[in-house]
TrEMBL record:
Name this protein carries in UniProt: ABC transporter substrate-binding protein
Span of domain Solute-binding protein family: 70-457
Highest taxon above the source species: Bacteria
GO cellular component: ATP-binding cassette (ABC) transporter complex; outer membrane-bounded periplasmic space
PANTHER family associated with the record: OLIGOPEPTIDE-BINDING PROTEIN APPA, PERIPLASMIC BINDING COMPONENT OF ABC TRANSPORTER
GO molecular function, one term: peptide transmembrane transporter activity
Length: 541
């Protein structure tokens, strides 16, 4: 693999058109984005690596702390009207966009209320076709819902009360962008990002390298009054092979690593999830609950021809698949205990209000699986048409495990491996009947997970990739909009989760766990269940 001379390359970029301290003092944080990037436009922050990079480049009204509490960002304070439908945000006056030639004299201007009117309107603009448009779906009545009576005030008028609204605004989709830049570049904003974040865009050669430089004018400071960030630059590589990337980490060419792969998993971790003796003390390993549910999705709307002609239209078959997979075994041997078996609902461990005992999922029960197959007319899988499971290359070993588990009860499961972007497009078009998916929290409220099954969120409008539709579920989902008491709302969430599990449009494989490796000279990292990769407080010795 062709490699670039990292520090020299960064130094050359840093010196191009800007003043800088000596290269000897350069603090460059090196990471790898194994699945690549498709966009640096926050309107398309739909996967983990895009979220990571957008989190360095942009800010929104609010942000989350390490405890997943919503705290101020560009909005220094806010009020909610007595009817719960009008949010008034008061903006800081010291937040500026990154410098760009499209601004007067090339200098970034101050962020104002109209910038949020523009940015939020852009999310729901069908011409932009943001993958985050579903966030506001049914909650606002078009762009007129957003207003800025003056430069330091921004108002959102909701159609109905929506208690998780502040949490929702922490999603990277809700970042502020300047209209001058977004209008000028249009779709090309993906490769010309201009935000307000701790780092500013410098260079991106797709599939090879991304460079972000320190924003010298960033508005946040540490508790001692020192301006953030501490780092001078972030350099991302795009090594798709996990073993190769891990070797780069071991050579100290990467400061951070967060992938597990069968090629080195047992060398790195014991089956109980601890570092092996070989690596004890060589780097820091951080684990924590991570709001990510790994699952298998099944299209269930029989109006689609691929569902009409599939055995997966039968709820008994879908339940049989749920019972057939030994999730404890999967987590122990394929994840080396990084994660928790998916024995509860779709909402993951670590989410506020999560209660595994209140949602009935599926534990390993091959006999029950066989009974359901027989009841569906396929004793031991006899005469059952094969099912095609679509996955990406990253999860090939996991899907091969699933394939073996299904074969054990008589289900002939064929596997088709696609590139991640291709599979995502197929799923978004309802072109696959059985697929592997992940749902990483956009914001820390269970509503975010349950919205995946709301009938008004059918693709392409929203993320209902299984085309699940249930009147009782929809009624509870809409009722939760009006419930301001957290415990009562959590109770409704658990009812909805139980409905989903009973109808089985998904197989919850496991709830993920944050697994981050840092070199010993790195400090200041944050540990949060959204795994946001917060680099503004990172220090590198």
């Amino acid at each position: 693999m062709h490699r670039l001379p990292g520090l020299l390359f960064i130094s050359a970029l840093f010196f191009a058109g800007c003043s800088a301290p000596s290269p000897d003092s350069r603090k460059v944080f090196n990471i790898n984005l194994e699945q690549g990037l498709t966009s640096l436009d926050p309107a398309f922050a739909r996967n983990q690596f895009a979220i990571w990079m957008d989190n360095q480049l942009y800010n929104g009204l609010v942000q989350v702390d390490d405890d997943l509490k919503t705290v101020p960002a560009i909005a220094k304070s806010w009020e909610l009207s007595p009817d719960g439908k009008r949010y008034t945000f008061h903006l800081r006056k010291d937040v500026y966009f990154h410098d760009d030639p499209l601004f007067r004299n090339g200098k970034g201007r101050r962020v104002t209320g109209p910038d949020f009117v523009y940015s939020f309107g852009r999310i729901i603009d069908p011409l932009v076709a943001s993958s985050g448009g579903w966030i506001f779906n049914g909650k606002v009545s078009g762009k007129e819902a957003f207003a800025a009576p003056n430069d330091s005030t921004f108002i959102v008028n909701l159609r109905n009360p929506f208690p998780p609204f502040l949490s929702m605004l922490t999603a990277q989709y809700c970042s502020v962008v300047p209209h001058e830049v977004a209008d000028h570049y249009g779709k090309d904003l993906r490769s010309h990002p201009v935000g307000t974040g701790p780092f500013k865009f410098k260079y991106w050669k797709e599939g090879e390298i991304l460079v972000l430089l320190k924003n010298e004018n960033y508005w946040e400071k540490d508790k001692n009054g020192n301006r953030l960030p501490y780092l001078d630059a972030v350099k991302a590589s795009f090594i798709s092979d996990k073993q190769t990337a891990f070797m780069e980490f071991l050579k100290n060419n990467l400061d951070f690593f967060n992938s597990l792969d069968g090629s080195f998993r047992d060398d790195l971790l014991t089956k109980s999830g601890r570092p092996t003796k070989k690596y004890a003390g060589k780097f820091r390993m951080i684990t924590n609950p991570f709001l990510n549910t790994e699952y298998l999705g099944m299209l269930v709307d029989t109006s689609f021809s691929i569902v009409k002609n599939s055995p997966l239209k039968d709820i008994r078959i879908r339940k049989a698949i749920n019972y057939a997979i030994d999730k404890k075994k999967l987590v122990k041997y394929l994840r080396n205990s990084i994660g928790s078996p998916g024995h509860s609902g779709f909402v993951p461990k670590g989410m506020p209000g999560f209660n595994a005992d209140s949602v009935s999922g599926y534990s390993y029960n091959p006999e029950k699986a066989r009974e359901l197959l027989a009841a569906a007319g396929y004793p031991n899988g006899k005469n059952m048409p094969p099912v095609l499971l679509q996955t990406s290359t990253t999860y090939k070993d996991l899907i091969e495990f699933v394939q073996g588990e299904l074969a054990a009860i008589g289900i002939n499961c064929r596997v088709e491996v696609n590139q991640t972007s291709s599979l995502r497009d197929l799923i978004a078009k309802n072109s696959v009947n059985f697929f592997r998916g992940s749902w990483i929290a956009d914001y820390p409220d269970a509503e975010n997970y349950l919205s995946v099954f709301y009938s008004k969120n059918y693709v392409p409008v929203g993320p209902n990739y299984t085309s699940f539709k249930n009147k009782q579920f929809d009624a509870l989902f809409e009722k939760a909009y009006f419930v301001t008491n957290d415990e009562e709302r959590f109770r409704l969430y658990r009812k909805m989760d139980n409905i989903v599990m009973d109808q089985a449009p998904v197989v919850v494989l496991f709830y993920d766990q944050l697994f981050n490796l840092y070199q010993n000279n790195i400090s200041g990292y944050s540990v949060n269940a959204e795994n946001l990769l917060i680099l503004k407080r990172i220090k590198k010795k």
